Every structure is written in structure tokens, then in C-alpha cells.
């Protein structure tokens, strides 16, 4: 979710990126060496690829869902620690981009998959996975139409998704996920009739600070909830 900026905004973006880098250096602890290697590999494999240009050229009926941005490794690790995902549970990133979230989940010990709209990004992510020696799976497809990889936790960096995209995704989430399946959305509140809100955490991301909501798919008849929408505990 990185938006095109004016040159006068560049100092602010540069300062935020530097803050993100410092945040990861201070919080990743034992993961720091793996983090540096992962970023070096991704920079090399994705050199020369411009995701903003690709999204603009693709256009289509919902260009907002192709906006590019990443969740830093430290932020994703924080979410995983508090998500309730059981050891061995599979993490799935719908709209995986370069694969940073998928690789981070793998390095944290979870099997992980990514579904990405652009085939070129998928091919480069697969090469990066081989470089890193990680069993990460990547498939090309539109997350509104393509089959989703099987998973126990689905991650949606949904800040820039428009109402049409959210509506179609919400239908698929409610119809296709098994009871107990976990979902994390950014800046998007799901229907509490279908999903139990577990927690809300503010996290740094490359486009600012997002509210990360963790949800669990309800089973059977919808359970009454006293939680206010958007205030999962």
C-alpha cells in the first residue's frame, strides 16, 4: 500500500523507512541474521522490478487491491506470537508480493504459502525461497477468483482494499473457511456474525501504522457477541 508521493514528501518517507529499519534491528533479536540475509536475497531477486508500474499497467476493475507495500518482519512476528496459531499451523498470505511475510513465517517455524497476482513476482519469490533454503510455496492467481492455498491462518494486508474488493473477499472468507480458521486483516473489520474478534494490535508497516485485527471463523450458528464492531479482544 505504497502511494505515489511528491518529491517534497521524500524526506518524510526516508525517515519512516529508517525508523522501520531501526525498529527491526532492535526487536528481531535472534532472528536478526536471518532477517539481513532474507532482505539481501529479496533485493537481489527483485532488482529491476517496479511493482507500482505493474499495478498501474494492470489497472482493471479494482487497482486499489494491487497497491504495493510490506509488513516488516518484526511486525509480522509480533502478530504471529499473539495470533494463537498452533505449532505446525500453515500461514497463507493472500497478495504476497515479494514474499516477505511468507518467508518471515517460515523462518518462525511455520509452513507458509503465498498467492500473488503477478506471475513474475511469483517466479522471483520461488527463486528467493530456493536461495534461502525455505519450503515456501507460491502460486500465481487473483485472490478473488483463484483457489486459495489450504491454511490455518490467512493474512490480508487490506488497508488499501476498496469496498467492492472487501465485499467479495468477505463472502469468500465466510463461505470457504472452516470453523476455527484464523484471519488477520489490516484496517478492516470483518462481520462479527461470521468471525469472532480476538485482538487488535497497532503495527508499523511500510505505509505508516496499521491496526491489525485477528479473527477466528465462527462455527455453527452465529454466537451473540457483546463486543463493539471493530473492537476485537
Structural class: alpha/beta
Number of strands: 7
Give the count of structural domains.
Answer: 1
Radius of gyration: 17 Å
Q: If strands are numbered along the chain, what order do they take across the biggest sheet?
A: 3-2-1-4-5-7-6
Task: Give me the CATH fold name.
Answer: Rossmann fold
* Sheet with most strands: 7 strands, mixed
Which whole number gives the mean pLDDT?
86
**What proportion of the residues is helical, as a percent range?**
25-40%
Report the span from N to C terminus: 26 Å
Q: Oligomeric state of the chains? A: single chain
Report the uncertain regions: 1-8, 221-233
Question: Architecture, CATH level 2?
Answer: 3-Layer(aba) Sandwich
Strand content of the residues, in percent?
Answer: 15-25%
Number of helices: 7
Reconstruct the topology from this structure.
Layout: H1 10-27, H2 32-45, H3 51-58, H4 73-83, E1 91-94, H5 100-107, E2 112-116, H6 119-132, E3 136-140, E4 153-156, H7 163-176, E5 182-186, E6 195-205, E7 208-217
Parallel strand pairs: 1-2, 1-4, 2-3, 4-5
Antiparallel strand pairs: 5-7, 6-7
Helix pairs in contact: 2-5, 2-6, 4-5
Describe the structure.
With about 230 residues, the protein is α/β, with parallel strands linked by helices. It has a single domain (about 5-215), classed as 3-Layer(aba) Sandwich (Rossmann fold), CATH 3.40.50. The chain contains 7 helices and 7 strands. The protein has a 7-stranded mixed sheet with strand order 3-2-1-4-5-7-6, with helices on one face. A hairpin with a 2-residue loop joins strand 6 and strand 7. Helix 2 runs antiparallel to helix 5 (about 100-105). The longest helix has 18 residues, at about 10-25. It is globular. The chain starts with 9 loop residues before the first helix and ends in a 16-residue tail after the last strand. Mean pLDDT is about 85; it is low at about 1-10 and about 220-233.
